[in-house]
Here is the input.
Amino acid sequence: MLGAIEAGGTKFVCAVGDEKGNIAARVQIPTTVPEETMPQVFEFFKQYDIEAIGIGSFGPIDVNPESPTYGNITSTPKKGWRDYPFVKAVNEAFPVPVGFNTDVNAAALGEAAYGAARGLDSCLYLTVGTGIGAGAVVQGRLLQGHSHPEMGHILVRRHPNDVYKGKCPYHDDCLEGLAAGPAIEERWGEKGINLVDRAEVWDMEGCYIAQALMQYILIVSPKKIILGGGVMNQTQVFSSIYKYLDEQLNGYITLPPLSEYIVRPGLGDNAGITGSLLLARQALQVKKLI
Ligand code: ADP
Ligand code: ZN
Here is the structure.
């Protein structure tokens, strides 16, 4: 049995399952402070005979195994979680191999193995929710270097009608600052869910996401792009993305038909937790090799 934790800013999803990504049981636990959330996480796993645990976490996180702070959540503004030694805490409760990566890298892994990018050795998973983040599988492996990618904070050109200042606490009008759920809400004065009939909202949203996708395509050239997160429930954004991407690329490169290339998650809401199970499987395999 493998364990998986999808650690989000509002909730933790914990699951147990097998190495093929099949989920046998799952629970949701609210994300409050570690002293409250983590004991509930451990209670859930204690019911099972767990061989390894995979964690897909909100970030930024330290994923460099050489680093003295490997396994920590790092500079999050979320109260109580800054510098939280996530892997160490899990390892103290369960002395088993632990895989640790970002929530979006886990989702990319899940989608590459069993979702919309099944059978492909590369894909990019972008979430547009409370924040914006992306993970990528390249040549069958998660994209990672000095640290994990932070693709949500790239710079984009402003839509000519946009005078909103931007909401990113670090950069104001980076992609996340202009296009994540809270930016939509502050710019238009309503939550996204209540703006369904305002075409200009989703046109602008598509303009920003298309620009970001163009950068990712030009740099990483993924074989499939998967868009998840609450904001992407507004499926009208997709047509805006296709329109702007087509305009911006201007025929420079040939892509598959955009409606097949840029899609919703094949695993629905289970992309992250399934990928976290796969992180557990990887951690176990590494252990067996050693
Ligand atoms: P989180 O990012 O916290 O894991 P979500 O992916 O659901 O959770 O993102 C929440 C953000 O997405 C909020 O800003 C919310 O207003 C927005 N959102 C959620 N559902 C919708 C929807 N159906 N339409 C538009 N915006 C939505
Ligand atoms: Zn930013």
Remarks:
- The chain is about 35% helix and 20% strand.
- Residues 235 and 264 are 9 Å apart (CA to CA).
- Strands lie at 2-7, 11-17, 23-30, 52-57, 98-102, 123-128, 132-138, 141-142, 225-228, 262-263.
- The two ends are 20 Å apart (CA to CA).
